[in-house]
Amino acid sequence: MDSKRLIIFIVLSMGILLLWQRFLAPKPAPAPVAQTQDFTTSAPAQAADGKPAAATSHLGSAQRITVDTDVLHAEIDTLGGDLRQLDLLKHDATDNAKKPFDLLTDKNGRVYVAQTGLLDSSNPALPTHKTVFTAAQSHYTLSGDTLEVSMSAPAANGVKVNKVYVFHKGSYLIGVRYDIVNASAAAIKPTAYFRLLRDGQAPEGETRFAYTFNGPAVYTSDSKFQKVKFSDVDKGKADYAKTTDNGWIAMLQHYFMSAWILNPAGQTSVCKIAQACHFSIDSANGLYSAAAMVDMKPIAAGKSVAITVPLYAGPEEYDIISKVTDGLELSKDYGWVHIFASPLFWLLTKLHALVLNWGWSIILLTVLVKAVFYPLTAASYRSMGKMKALAPRLEKLKEIHGDDRAKFQQAVMEMYKSEKVNPLGGCLPMLIQIPVFIGLYWALLASVELREAPWVMWIHDLARPDPYYVLPVLMAVTMFAQTFLNPPPTDPVQAKMMKIMPMAFSAMFFFFPAGLVLYYVLNNMLSIAQQWHINRRIDAARKAQAVHS
Q1: What is the mean pLDDT of residues 376-389?
Q2: Residue numbers of the domain that contains 204
Q3: Which of 13-17, 224-228, 524-528 has the largest mean confidence?
Q4: Rounded Cα distance, 45 and 226, in Å
Q5: pLDDT digits (tens, 9 = 90+) for 515-529
Q6: Are residues 429 and 380 in the same domain?
Q7: How do residues 159-176 score in pLDDT, each as one tens digit?
Q8: Is-contact 85 105, C-beta < 8 A?
Q9: pLDDT at residue 52, as a whole number
Q10: What is the pTM of this model?
């Protein structure tokens, strides 16, 4: 492999691996939100397997109850007691920094809501997401550590049901409880369902340059973390754990998530006090449902039972979600490079604890990673430095052999052998580092901790593109500068291509989050300094050898 092929191979390998998730990885097609039909007010049909029937059209609405805490603004519809709107007050909207981020919503053509209900074939009057509840007041404000919002359902053949939301100060974990009093003459055996219902549209702010997984996910202690693509749901090919006695079911998107938690940390799993728990993921008319169903034990006449399944709805901040329940931190999805990205993010958080600034933490992490790989990159640059030193001799060989490619290649290989230069020496050390570099890329891309995190001067949000494009321009300059340190191709056309390719690749960095570009700029600058230093040492060694000879 001659120098031009080596450089092309390295550049293309890095480019393909970097761009795969951006352009080539399959993305779910946006599904239309069905809003034209009337949503009936009767109880939802119950399938033979006991699952709640999927919503088929517009959700309908009754009275709205608003709830304000220090971190949330919630709107609960008395129709079903659905959680229809949830604004995260500590996080800005992607397209408007003056507004809070709305995670759940049924406005502006979007559907992403949390619904619950009770099903029992012997008592179909039990409240579902079609039942109209009543509440004592229309607005609640958290003033202490805990706030309960209770709603009452109409009596269902003697069965009294209250649906209670429990909000906590500084928390994105919302308790959802059913207080059931069976004042009827017969036992009931309800199935409680807790589901997330949403459309298949890409979340706010997503672009082809910042695509991450968007869709349902399931976790159990046995099956671990499983993502389910919207496209697989549509095709009936969704593969996930359906029966469990622990875990959670969620809807994931970039930076944020919502999840029904069956076994909160430090508490007994709701499945342990019930007969069985199930997960269900399906779709109908453009809406996707991810539900946890709890088959409750029979409630005898005259008995009372309470069942609680918390809803986590908030950012995928590691320090928060890792304390909610087992495996919830896996929602911070790094894909196939999880084994590399997870420890790198852990190290990033430790560095942040020292410097208290995510920008400087990225810089320290970049320096540390570069230091660890210094022996490998040094070997690579020494190989490329030697090949660059042989460039004049390559030109002479090309002039001697003209268009006879076979003789030219033979002469080149003999020269490499006599000079003890391995043409793969610059390639293999770089390939070993690629998974780590891609892992760091995903660690930074998936970190909601960088969202709205300032660095210096004009960089006020490391998760947004540089507003003045200073970092992307520096990225382009450093990539172009590196081409002068690499062995030049002997073919003028390919030499020109090698000058253009870095500029073309750097163009996409104008749309990347500033935190990512900061890492790549610094990495390039350190690489240039290291390569320049090694090239100088090689030139000095050759001059010294020439003097002594």
Answers
A1: 67
A2: 56-333
A3: 224-228
A4: 28
A5: 999 998 998 899 888
A6: yes
A7: 999 999 999 999 999 999
A8: yes
A9: 58
A10: 0.82
What is the C-alpha to C-alpha distance for residues 415 and 417, in angstroms, rounded to an integer?
5
- Whether residue 346 sits in one domain with residue 328: no
Token duo for residue 411: 């002469």
Confidence of residue 540 (pLDDT cuts 50, 70, 90): confident
Domain limit, last residue, from 333, 367, 388? 333
Neighbours of 75 (CB within 10 A): 20
Considering only CA atoms, which of 82, 84, 154, 156 is closest in space to residue 119?
A: 156
Note whether 86 and 213 are same-domain residues. yes
Pairwise CA distance, residues 390 & 412, whole Å: 10
pLDDT digits over 469-493, tens only?
Answer: 999 999 888 888 877 766 555 556 6
Res 100 pLDDT > 80: yes
pLDDT at 377: 72
Distance (Å, whole) CA 50 – CA 121: 9
| 470 CB burial (10 A radius; 0-12, 13-18, 19+) | middle
Domain membership of residue 40 (yes or no) is no
Tell me if 35 is assigned to some domain.
no
Contact 288, 60 (CB under 8 A): no
pLDDT at site 482: 77
Return the HEC string of 152-173. ECCCECCEEEEEEEEEECCCCE
What pLDDT was estimated at residue 121?
92
Whether the pLDDT of residue 413 is over 90: the answer is: no
H or E stretch covering 6: helix 3-19
Q: What is the 3-state secondary structure (H, E, C) of 239-290?
A: CCCCEECCCEEEEECCCEEEEEECCCCCCCCHHHHCCEEEEEEEEECCEEEE
DSSP per-residue letters across 9-56? HHHHHHHHHHHIIIIIS--PPPPPPP-SSPPP-SPPPB-TTSPBPPP-
- pLDDT class of 49 with cuts at 50, 70, 90: low
- Domain end, chosen from 316, 333, 350, is at 333
CA 533 – CA 378 distance, rounded (Å): 10
One-letter amino acid of 194: F
Is 80 exceeded by the pLDDT of residue 416? no
Q: Residue 446: which region, alpha, beta or left (left: phi > 0; alpha: psi -120 to 50)?
A: alpha
User: DSSP per residue over 488-509, as a string?
Assistant: PPSSHHHHHHHHHHHHHHHHGG
* Residue 104, token pair as written in the block: 């759940």
> For residues 208 and 214, is the Cβ–Cβ distance under 8 A?
no
